[in-house]
Amino acid sequence: MVGSLVLNRFLIERRIGSGGFGVVYEAWDGRLERPVAVKAIEQQGEAGRRVLREAQAAARLNHPGIVTLYELGEEDGNALLVSELVEGSTLARLAHAGELSDREIGEVGADLCEALDHAHSRGVVHRDIKPQNVQVTETDGEPHAKLMDFGIAHLADGAALTAPGDIVGTLAYMSPEQAEGRPAGPEADVYSLALVLYECWSGENPHRRASPAATARAIGARTRPLRRLRPDLP
After folding, report:
1. Hey, where are the domains in the chain?
2. CATH number of the domain at 5-84, please?
3. pLDDT confidence bin for 59, thresholds 50/70/90
4. Computed over its alpha carbons, how large is the radius of gyration of the chain?
5. Do the domains spanning 5-84 and 89-229 agree at the CATH topology level?
6. Are 41 and 78 in contact (CB under 8 A)?
7. Which long-range contacts (CB under 8 A, 24 or more apart) does 214-219 make?
8. Is 128 an annotated catalytic residue?
9. Pick among 2.60.40.1180, 3.100.10.20, 3.30.390.10, 1.10.510.10: CATH of 89-229
10. CA–CA separation, 173 and 196 (whole Å)
11. Phi, psi of 28 (to 5 degrees)
12. Are the CB atoms for 4 and 27 separated by under 8 Å?
């Protein structure tokens, strides 16, 4: 796909990532002369429904803490989601490398709280808050976070396309209701964000165990207070 022109407008320049539902490329928007990100997803079964769901969710949102969707199209059997290209690194990489101070982690958390408040006020629940879905950029020496991938978002007006009882999200960051396959509301996102920040400050995820089964059993269990792990935090 690299080197091809898609939707008669976007020149695919390089592959920058991939996931369970598609491949992400950096591309050049020849009409507006700007770099963009293009996510290509084969439109088969759940993948095709997920594309529509992500576009529906993202179209409701307009916030500096959420990656902006520009266009949705289809070509050669692939759904193409064209969005803002965000420079920087994922929160997962920065936290693992210890490149954020405690204060900067707090600033990232504040950005994400504002982004989620915006999404929730428009009836959108993300349902997969994790460090890999947070892109951190730097402006004037200060970190700013953007929330990515509303691919399994639930539209609170009932337009979700997953079946009752489906378990969606990333296990180590799930709320108890998600792990049990129950409906997940805004509270589930807040719970997951708390786990993300706990991990960034302490260096450990309180749910994660050696196996998925053990991790699932740990969800909802009593968590060691962060103060015990980081008594130096203000």
Report:
1. 5-84, 89-229
2. 3.30.200.20
3. confident
4. 18
5. no
6. yes
7. 215/171, 215/172, 216/171, 216/179, 219/171, 219/174, 219/175, 219/176, 219/179
8. yes
9. 1.10.510.10
10. 7
11. -115, 125
12. no
What is the mean predicted confidence (pLDDT) over 47-65?
77
177 with 183: CB under 8 angstroms? yes
User: 206 to each of 94, 209, 214, 216, how far by Cα in Å?
Assistant: 19, 8, 12, 11
| Res. 225: pLDDT tops 80 | yes
CA neighbours closer than 13 Å in the CB half-sphere of residue 113:
8
Rounded distance between C-alpha atoms, residue 58 and residue 48, angstroms: 16
Considering the candidates 128, 140, 166, 189, report the single residue annotated as catalytic: 128
| pLDDT tens-digit series, residues 191-213 | 999 999 999 999 999 999 988 88
The answer to whether residue 44 scores a pLDDT higher than 70 is no
Give helix 186-202 / helix 102-121 axis angle, nearest 10°: 170
Q: What is the mean pLDDT of residues 179-198?
A: 93
